[in-house]
């Protein structure tokens, strides 16, 4: 009888116990990274996300970085202050969360603000705290808390951006509550993302998981 | 005479039975009714299953199947030991209310109009909340003094869920400690005015399980002391300074593993 590799069963373990363990997460990340990195290097897409994934994996000591990344400077210039403030100005009623719906781009833009230590007249901290509450109170239904105008894949990607935001926020603010919410979000997205055909979703999920693991390594070990 | 109504999450809640049993022996304290939330509410089960998935099944199993048995292997200070000490003879709230001639109601949800109607009929001075979901403003407005809740943690610092574990993982055992807080409920989560607070000193081999078990007995004690204090006019509720604390949520298993390790690391300092 053919032997079944443990990894092949990891999704079953996840379905049964509801979460991925340290080793299952690492195995999944490295497996996916092998596939995606190879694919994307050829086409040059998702350059920014792959760069961030590689930096995270290197910080975790899971891969060695042999080459330099000229992309770094470009990344820092890319999502400028004016773009984020423009996004905020265009929000419906000036609210990041309106009737339980998280505004499109909230994860990415709030992350930029938090990373650059900027605020939206006191709205940033409040918005991140409200997002934390949405994830914790709505739980699995958080995955539906995005605009109906978005496609299914876009909604998943918005959700993964939220996961990335709160994983990073947990490290920046030394607040384990954010990591707690990110772990849950990533567990809920596992069933969707392990079988998605969308490369973009796969890359975002991989980035979300590596951000989560960096926070785990920094705050729980 | 203080009129109370007790709200319970399930008919076999030992916490609710112990409080009702102790209060029934108190002078000038009347339990006007016991209201229990029905477990057979298809709509609620469906909503909670969509939200919680497998966790809901575990919760129901623990409440209905395991019930009091969860204390049998646990030595020391816990609700089962307290029940023995109180010589509690009632297996559920239905038995207790029948024997003590207290009206007993089963409602779909504590916030349901029928539940509100029952409560308004009884005009309680205090509602004693022993669990059964979030309470909405119309219910909170019914009792003269307010709705009492005992929280398994130190307020205002640790509001919300799994706060024993959160205290450990944030390495605040020495600074904040473990304890229970009796407070009036308001529309927030554990944000209402505080009546009483009491700490415990965990043993050097303490686990989350036995810390929680000890806190549950403390909660019974605080709830009774709180009702007595309101009856005697000896307690004054103190509003919380919310900025001194944060709200916590159900802890992910991977953080729980870390919390366990940090509890062990902090124990020698206790």
SS field, number of helical segments of chain B: 10
How far apart lie the N and C ends of chain B?
Answer: 43 Å
Largest sheet of chain B: 7 strands, mixed
The overall strand count of chain B is: 9
Percent helix range of chain A: 55-70%
N-to-C SSE series of chain B?
Answer: EHEHHHHEHEHEEHEEHEH
Q: What is the average of the pLDDT values of chain B?
A: 91
> What is the CA-based Rg of chain A, rounded?
17 Å
Tell me roughly what share of residues is in helical segments of chain B.
40-55%
Number of separate structural domains of chain A: 1
| Main interface: chain pair and counts | A-B, 23 and 20 residues
SS-based class of chain A = mainly alpha
Q: Order of strands in the sheet with the most strands of chain A?
A: 1-2
Could you please describe the fold and organization of this structure?
- The complex is a heterodimer of chains A (221) and B (270).
- With 221 residues, chain A is mostly helical.
- Chain A has one domain.
- In chain A, 69% of the residues lie in helices and 2% in strands.
- Chain A is built from ten helices and two strands, in the order αααααββααααα.
- Chain A has a two-stranded antiparallel ribbon.
- In chain A, a hairpin with a 2-residue loop joins strand 1 and strand 2.
- In chain A, helix 2 packs across helix 10 and helix 3 packs parallel to helix 10.
- The longest helix of chain A is centred in the first third of the chain and has 22 residues.
- Chain B has 270 residues and is of the alpha/beta class.
- Chain B has a single domain, classed as Formyl transferase, N-terminal domain (Rossmann fold).
- In chain B, the strands form two sheets. Chain B has a seven-stranded mixed β-sheet with strand order 3-2-1-4-5-7-8, with helices on both faces. In chain B, strands 6-9 form a two-stranded parallel sheet.
- In chain B, helix 7 links the parallel strand 4 and strand 5.
- In chain B, helix 2 crosses helix 3 and helix 8 crosses helix 10.
- The longest helix of chain B has 25 residues.
- The relative contact order of chain B is 0.16.
- Chains A and B meet through helix 7 and helix 9 of A and helix 2, strand 9 and helix 10 of B.
């Amino acid at each position: 009888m053919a032997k079944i590799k443990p990894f092949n069963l990891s999704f079953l373990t996840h379905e049964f116990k509801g979460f991925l363990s340290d080793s299952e997460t690492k195995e999944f990340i490295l497996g996916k990274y092998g596939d995606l990195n190879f694919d994307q290097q050829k086409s040059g897409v998702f350059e920014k996300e792959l760069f961030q994934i590689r930096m995270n994996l290197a910080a975790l000591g899971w891969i060695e970085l042999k080459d330099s990344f000229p992309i770094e400077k470009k990344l820092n210039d890319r999502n400028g202050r004016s773009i984020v403030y423009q996004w905020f100005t265009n929000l419906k009623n000036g609210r990041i969360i309106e009737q339980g719906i998280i505004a499109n781009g909230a994860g990415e833009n709030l992350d930029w603000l938090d990373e650059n230590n900027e605020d939206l007249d006191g709205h940033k901290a409040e918005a991140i705290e409200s997002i934390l509450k949405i994830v914790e109170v709505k739980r699995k239904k958080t995955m539906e808390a995005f605009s109906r105008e978005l496609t299914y894949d876009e909604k998943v990607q918005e959700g993964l951006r939220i996961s990335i935001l709160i994983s990073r926020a947990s490290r920046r603010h030394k607040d384990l509550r954010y990591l707690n919410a990110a772990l849950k979000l990533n567990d809920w997205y596992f069933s969707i993302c392990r079988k998605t055909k969308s490369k973009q979703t796969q890359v975002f999920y991989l980035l979300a998981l590596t951000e989560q693991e960096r926070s785990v390594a920094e705050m729980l070990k | 005479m203080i009129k109370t109504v007790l709200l319970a999450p399930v008919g076999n809640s030992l916490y609710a039975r112990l409080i009702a049993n102790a209060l029934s022996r108190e002078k000038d304290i009347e339990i006007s009714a016991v209201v229990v939330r029905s477990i057979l509410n298809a709509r609620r089960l469906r909503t909670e299953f969509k939200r919680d998935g497998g966790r809901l099944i575990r919760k129901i199993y623990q409440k209905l199947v395991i019930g009091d048995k969860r204390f049998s292997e646990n030595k020391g200070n816990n609700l089962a030991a307290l029940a023995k000490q109180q010589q509690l003879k009632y297996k559920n709230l239905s038995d207790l209310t029948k024997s003590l001639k207290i009206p007993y109601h089963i409602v779909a949800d504590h916030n349901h109009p029928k539940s509100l109607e029952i409560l308004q009929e009884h005009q309680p001075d205090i509602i004693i909340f022993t669990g059964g979901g979030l309470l909405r403003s119309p219910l909170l407005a019914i009792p003269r003094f307010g709705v009492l809740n005992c929280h398994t943690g130190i307020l205002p610092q640790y509001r919300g869920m799994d706060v024993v574990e959160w205290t450990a993982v944030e390495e605040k055992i020495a600074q904040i400690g473990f304890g229970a807080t009796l407070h009036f409920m308001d529309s927030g989560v554990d944000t209402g005015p505080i009546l009483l607070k009491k700490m415990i000193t965990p043993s050097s081999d303490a686990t989350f399980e036995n810390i929680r078990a000890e806190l549950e007995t403390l909660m019974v004690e605080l709830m009774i002391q709180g009702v007595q204090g309101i009856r005697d006019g000896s307690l004054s509720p103190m509003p919380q300074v919310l900025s001194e604390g944060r709200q916590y949520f159900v802890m992910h298993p991977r953080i729980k593993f870390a919390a366990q390790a940090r509890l062990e690391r902090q124990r020698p300092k206790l």
